[in-house]
Amino acid sequence: MHNCHTHNACIETALEAAVVICDDGGLRFTKLRRAVLELVWTSHGPIKAYDILDQLDSSIASVTPPTVYRALDFLLENGLVHKLSSLNAYVGCSHPHRHHECYFLICTGCGEAMECCNSGLVDAVALTGRQNNFKPKSITLEITGECGDCQGRH
Amino acid sequence: MHNCHTHNACIETALEAAVVICDDGGLRFTKLRRAVLELVWTSHGPIKAYDILDQLDSSIASVTPPTVYRALDFLLENGLVHKLSSLNAYVGCSHPHRHHECYFLICTGCGEAMECCNSGLVDAVALTGRQNNFKPKSITLEITGECGDCQGRH
DNA sequence: TCTAAAATGTTATAATATAACATAATGAGA
DNA sequence: TCTCATTATGTTATATTATAACATTTTAGA
Ligand SMILES: [Zn+2]
Ligand SMILES: [Zn+2]
Ligand SMILES: [Zn+2]
Ligand SMILES: [Zn+2]
């Protein structure tokens, strides 16, 4: 379950952060990109590209796959969303100002994806790299299971 | 790069291990499943479902997607192959007798996926679970980067 | 204003995976 | 050996996810 009791505030915060990041980076946070990021955040859990497409207001952009995928590409490149490969779904980055290595606890009960940063994990990955003479560039770490709230409900 | 200088032996070993595992588990290691596992192993790196389909001998089975996906499902369920979600590709498990938590170092240079088991990483994941009151069931950990052999070649 | 670059529109198609139902093969018990 | 239920495979169609290719519009700076 999401633990932000005021999810609207949560969405607003994310959008404001995106504005700052784009301003700082000289990036264009267009109406479309904003709309897509807002849809991603409005969904409480990971959302699929075609669900974004379904929900996209046709007055904002052409409702076709390239529209959504391009916006997602922009958001991914700039660290505003993450892709969960194991689900083919997208989720807003909850700390876009400093998203080094992020990983996800994905609950099969409620569908929420909790984003974590943990130096222990990061260190373990780095060590593995060194041990294998391997130079890591990007990491996909998705842990599927049951969150605390859902473990009770059987 | 794969470091098994006799990859044929490597394939044979994997097939023999599969026979043992299926025998022990009362599972049917059919001609089709064997053929698909062999194709997975014959590929030096991760292989895609439709590439398996292309290479599947039509005298063994009907060359249609369900054929391949069903065989892959069987092999996945029984720990004989892994799916690399970040690539939508499949790779043979290199230690199917005891594949607890596996992760992969995927080289963008040569395409190889090296399977690792590292208690440090496993422990870090477990700790993260406890800290977040989250009960992990399955883990997707794919590290993309450059292997030692490929770091030289620029 | 002019213009090159970036963003979006548009149409088509590629790539990945599953649904649904039919048939065949297998193997355990009668 | 003969059911017959289960498992595996065949077959056809379709769902889902993502990109290619090219046209047009918008933007921001010179
Ligand atoms: Zn993040
Ligand atoms: Zn949950
Ligand atoms: Zn394995
Ligand atoms: Zn390599």
Short description:
The structure is a homodimer of 154-residue chains. In chain A, 45% of the residues lie in helices and 19% in strands.
Plain-language structure description:
The structure is a homodimer of 154-residue chains. Chain A contains six helices and five strands; from the N terminus they run H-H-H-H-E-E-E-E-H-E-H. With 154 residues, chain A is an alpha+beta fold. Chain A folds into two domains: 7-92, Arc Repressor Mutant, subunit A (Orthogonal Bundle), CATH 1.10.10.10; 102-151, Ferric-uptake regulator, C-terminal dimerisarion domain (Dna Ligase, domain 1), CATH 3.30.1490.190. A three-stranded mixed β-sheet of chain A has the order 4-3-5. A two-stranded antiparallel ribbon of chain A has the order 1-2. In chain A, a hairpin with a 4-residue loop joins strand 1 (81-84) and strand 2. In chain A, helix 2 (31-42) crosses helix 4 (65-77) and helix 3 (49-55) packs across helix 4 (65-77). Chain A is globular, with a radius of gyration of 16 Å. Chain A starts with 6 loop residues before the first helix and ends with a helix. The interface between A and B is large, with 36 and 36 residues. Strand 5 (135-146) of chain A pairs antiparallel with strand 5 of chain B, so a sheet runs across the interface. One zinc ion is lined by residues 82, 93, 95, 99, 102, 115 of chain B. Chain A binds a DNA duplex (30 and 30 nucleotides) through helix 4.
